[in-house]
Write a structure and sequence with these properties.
By secondary structure, the chain is an alpha+beta fold. The protein folds into 3 domains: 45-128, no CATH class; 132-212, no CATH class; 215-324, no CATH class. Helix content is 43%, strand content 15%. It has a 4-stranded antiparallel β-sheet with strand order 4-7-8-9. The termini are far apart.
Length: 325
């Protein structure tokens, strides 16, 4: 017979030994490392492709930003040069901010202010820059604004100009619902059938009043009735359609000889991306600074902003809020 000590020894020898927790964790780690090793080549290749695509997109963004910098109004040549030089620091390890400071003879505080101002204007310009509606003439048979909204809210001033000229000839506009459910506007003679919910009519003079109140002309309205606003125009600017305090011959005239009539010129060549004004045709933008009256600043509701305007008639293509209290 076995003694009690011999039985305990035999029982202990029959039970399989438990593996060490560290070794088990180490085995899992080794297995996972082997699995990672199997896919290491594929992941490295995907990382290279991702880096190449990211670098290409960054280069494209930099080229787009450089192109927009030339189109951005309200900046002098020195500000553009400072911004370009500072952005080159990211790509050129030799160039430093101290070199730029000595080159342009500016303090770092001034350079920082320039960078912040240009970045802010670029961000706003990217969001509100004129799109295809301001760079292409709508077809003569266009039935609705190209931004898909109503006449009261559209930003497609070139379409409004085309529709107004047609309405000035016929006297009326037919407002109906098309097959796609959107509103359709067409110049028409005096209607002989009554209006319905699906078909309405508008006089040409009603459309003209609607166009005159469009935000596109808010700069001319400010010049016509300043109401104590401070307006800073570029020096030496000569408008093709001048406006003075209390007198605006463009907005008060018949418009039949001005509005959109340039589009009928057969020899007109418009470069790609050229801005088109409904009155002046191909145009450039100028920056006009506007400051609200002194009473608004005392009441803590003052505003100072810049308007990107047509150089010929002060039509507004964009607005940038610069200061508020």
């Amino acid at each position: 017979m076995r003694t009690r000590n011999q039985q305990q020894t035999a029982t202990a020898s029959s039970i399989p030994a438990k593996s060490n927790g560290r070794k088990r964790k180490g085995a899992k780690y080794e297995d996972s490392s082997k699995l990672r090793g199997l896919g290491e080549t594929d992941s490295s290749e995907s990382k290279v492709e991702t880096l190449e695509s990211n670098s290409a997109s960054v280069a494209g963004d930099e080229n787009e930003e450089d192109r927009l910098l030339d189109l951005l109004p309200g900046l002098c040549a020195k500000e553009r040069a400072v911004y370009r030089a500072m952005t080159q620091i990211r790509n050129d390890s030799i160039l430093t901010s101290a070199d730029i400071r000595r080159k342009f003879r500016l303090s770092m505080h001034t350079i920082g202010s320039i960078m912040a101002r240009v970045r802010r204007k670029l961000e706003i310009f990217k969001k509100t820059r004129p799109g295809s509606m301001f760079c292409t003439v709508p077809p003569l048979d266009a039935a609705s604004p190209r931004d898909g909204v109503s006449l009261q809210h559209t930003s497609d001033m070139l379409y409004l100009a085309l529709l107004l000229e047609g309405a000035m000839r016929t006297g009326w506009i037919e407002d109906s619902i098309g097959n796609d459910g959107h509103r359709v506007y067409r110049p028409t003679p005096k209607p002989e059938v009554p209006a319905t919910n699906e078909r309405r009519y508008m006089k040409a003079r009603t459309l003209k009043g609607l166009v005159l109140q469009h935000p596109f002309w808010r700069m001319r309205r400010l010049r016509h009735m300043p109401n104590d606003h401070r307006i800073n125009m570029p020096r030496g600017l000569v408008l093709k359609h001048p406006v003075k305090k209390g007198s605006d011959p463009l907005l008060s005239g018949p418009w039949f000889d001005h509005f959109h009539s340039w589009a009928e010129c057969s020899d007109l060549v418009v470069p790609a991306g050229q801005l088109l004004c409904p009155v002046c045709g191909p145009t450039d933008l100028i920056a006009v600074s506007v400051r609200s009256p002194a009473a608004t600043w005392q009441a803590l509701c003052g505003r100072a902003y810049e308007l990107d305007c047509c150089a010929g008639c002060l039509g507004v293509f964009g607005q940038t809020l610069g200061l508020m209290n």
